[in-house]
Amino acid sequence: MQDTKPRDRIAGLVLARPDRVLGMEPFMADVVQGIEEYFAGRRCSLLIEFTADVAGEIEIWRRWVAHEYVDGIVMVDLRSDDPRLDELVRLRTPGVLLGGPELQAPITNVLVDNAEGARAAVRALADLGHREIARVSGPRDMVHCQARDEAFIATCAERDVQGQVIEGDYSEESGREATRQLLTGGPMPSAVVYDNDLMAIGGLSVAKELGVAVPEELSIIAWDDTAVARLAHPPLSVVTVDVHGLGAIVGEAILAAMDGADVTTYHVPKPTIRLTQSVSRAVITHS
């Protein structure tokens, strides 16, 4: 007698990362853990592949769909004029976008308020007397980085803070390069906000190398409350979102999409700031 038991469903996730961002960064590792925890006991598993760019990601999607390897696709890191949205529609595969703009995508999305996280970081530092604050962003073609950039600059203006933005690529090395530029290229900011924990770790190492004390001379805030941030020396102040919980919401969303649910937006709690030993009150110098 033929076994008619339905097979487990598979959701696919492709991570497009530059060569020097090796493997899965801590934020995405926590998201994946949350997805897989939600899938546990629900006859669903997660397939993950890595590639260098969006074009490679689309090729992997096409291969998956052609061979019926996946039943749904999780998409991350929406870009400006992103070709992946149209490709998902063309492939007729259920999909979920993590972090997309509300009601502007043709697929279900899990919305993170990136702008509020950037505003909260500037406010926290301004309240401690910081008047020159830098931001080391992720790649500026990513929509969530653009939202953070715009909110950062606007909030700096509101709080009479001199703000500047330097682009990184989420790697520790780019954090080192950006920090060296900030600490040696002119008037030094009293605080830096990094778009992820790895770039902040790179910043810590350069500050130590140059003899800039953290937090006495330089305050640091990193995006994402991960083990890497908590184990840094000093422990990093963070823009915190429940990343594991975020992954669980993504897992819920893609399962619903594979079950034929209507396109919708899932909201997650707004980011907050947790200040630790990497931030202190600004030192006011008088000439």
From TrEMBL:
InterPro entries attached to this UniProt entry: LacI/GalR-like_sensor (IPR046335), Peripla_BP_I (IPR028082)
The entry's keywords: DNA-binding, Transcription, Transcription regulation
One of the Pfam families matching this protein, by short name: Peripla_BP_3
All residue ranges annotated as the Transcriptional regulator LacI/GalR-like sensor domain in the record: 122-272
Gene3D superfamilies to which the protein is assigned, alphabetical: 3.40.50.2300
CDD domains documented for this protein: PBP1_LacI_sugar_binding-like (cd06267)
The keyword Transcription regulation appears for this protein: yes
Source superkingdom: Bacteria
GO molecular function: DNA-binding transcription factor activity; transcription cis-regulatory region binding
PANTHER family, per database record: ALANINE RACEMASE, LACI-RELATED TRANSCRIPTIONAL REPRESSOR
Name recorded for this polypeptide: LacI family transcriptional regulator
